[in-house]
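LAB NOTEBOOK - FOLDING QUEUE
OPERATOR: T.R.
BATCH SIZE: 2
PURPOSE: Compare the predicted structure-token outputs for two unrelated chains run back to back under identical settings.
PRIORITY: normal
REVIEWER: second-year student, initials M.K.

ITEM 1
FIELD SEQUENCE / FIELD STRUCTURE:
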Amino acid sequence: MTPPPAPSATTPATTPVGRSRPRRSCLAVPGSSPRFLEKAQGLPADQVFLDLEDACAPLAKPDARHTIVKALNEGDWTGKTRVVRVNDWTTEWTYRDVITVVEGAGQNLDCVMLPKVQDAQQIVALDLLLTQIERTMGFEVGRIGIEAQIENAKGLVNVDAIAAASPRTETIIFGPADFMASVNMRTLVVGEQPPGYPADAYHYILMKLLMAARTHDLQVIDGPYLQIRNVDGFREVAGRAAALGYDGKWVLHPGQIDAANEVFSPAQEDYDHAELILDAYAFHTSEAGGRKGSVMLGDEMIDEASRKMALVIAGKGRAAGLSRTSSFEAPEG
């Protein structure tokens, strides 16, 4: 396969700060519904994405673009990452989605989500279009991030190149419904295991997306669970992704938000322990602590590898707004 062209020279080479945004819960909101757009502003989701794709009927898309611009400019989205999902590049709507929304509300937009990404060229094309709009409108070039949604076999095969295609990219997202259809998976229940297969049918997919994302320092998000009233089922599926290291999951209904925020946040005990490891390691490797490379913290030996693991848990806890309930005390002498 021919390697993708280098990202646009007009795009900054630095890592976007948006890659560290909290994204435990990513709420889908139909872009054609002013009522839902208003309601979403008061919900405790980390991220909202205003949808111009599947949630909008074809005839509703042109008006929905302007509805979204109005909501972004006039709404109160405090504390939320603001994202718009445009239509994919195989449709006739994509370029107009991007131009209308970014020209109209680019200063109040954090990311553009591109669905059904199949190769790196599609990310490069979006990067170039965003750069042209930013320059034309006088916006900061490169500030608006990209979220890449993988929804078919070709996208999964090319995900490493997709993840590397633009420094704007912040997240890789699994789109299970379209993906299941693309590989002829024998189930109609999105996110549930297909009957007759005794193992986890999604493990390879989730791990491949995770490896591509982490290789390029991106976040990785699990897709939706469509049985919106089955919160226990949502928790189970979300827990699988969280255990692997995913940063969050889509939510389709307000009833799923609290569950997502809880599942993708560390337990208080784990957060406290991670912070203690970081404090203890910092002290014992210092001059005052004896410049030791490995030490005991209670009954546990900690070293540099322990510090790296603790950084992950502590980072997730801080992003979730957790407060410490214990503190490190340096040993006497």
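ITEM 2
FIELD SEQUENCE / FIELD STRUCTURE:
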Amino acid sequence: MGDALGPATSAAFAPEDLVRRYSRTAAGRAWLDGLPAQLDRCLERWGLTADDDDPGPWSGFGAMVLGVRRGSEAFVLKLAYPYPESASEPVALRLWNGDGAVRLLEDDGAGALLLERLDPRRRLQDVPFPEATALWGGLVRRLSIPEDDRPDWAALERLDARAERWSDELPERWDRFGRPFPRWLLEAALDVCATRGVVGRRGGRDVLVHTDLHGMNVLGAPDGAGFRAIDPQAAVGEAEFAVAPMLWNRLPELRRADAPEALLERCRDLAEAAGLNPEAAREWAVLREVENALWYAGKTGHERDLERSLWVASALCSRLLPGLPEARDLKRLD
């Protein structure tokens, strides 16, 4: 397996969970069918061989990741499903250029990325709080770079524009999906759309934001010291937008006696560790979880995900909705 792989061998590489997830639609099946040829093209184009010592391939929600080598150097090859959100990944990685995020070596423009190899055995997800808070905050400070004259910035979505779009979309979806939570929570999210959208346009604080920066998307650096971000779904706007994923992960670890108050403390602590405004972080998190809740409400089989989003959103409003599970019983995201 040390040489470039032929199509038959490549076809066996797709992990079972990835095949199961993407074989449900015609587009997904077409992507899976094209993986062997895409893999072989990348191996040949970039002078790579599969790494015999790597136990992969690995899969995330929307990509296959394979350990590869070029001479004595070890990398990973990522083949991503063409979700709209995935288009921002190579753009953001070029802008960060290895400072706080995994380094991008090659991009085929069709979802294949050659990346430096990080240590998947070291995840921020496994670091206990409050140490994880401090590490996450330091990473956000590094990633929050201001706009400059590089053309890549123009390809990224603006968070103030996203907030304005949600102000129109959320009420329509709330009605269409049967009003799955009280109106006051919808109105709380719409208030954030109005306030943060305006502040974002006028505040002059726009930076590059990793919008999915939870503990499973932070891995150990190759030198064994520190951590780096992976899998960015990047946008431009207020850095406080980045706090939310660290709130909807690891909920069972919150104090049992007063979990909603503990979540608010975690929000404040994360924001302060990153040098951010805690109230802006709380507001963005409320909006993001209401939007997530409506996404889950429109899908089948996501009832427990919906409960988690409603728990987080209402707890951050200091008005926990009745009838939801305890924090320790909410569905995990790991």
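REVIEWER COMMENT (ITEM 2): Confidence is low (pLDDT under 50) at residues 1-11.
FOLLOW-UP: none requested
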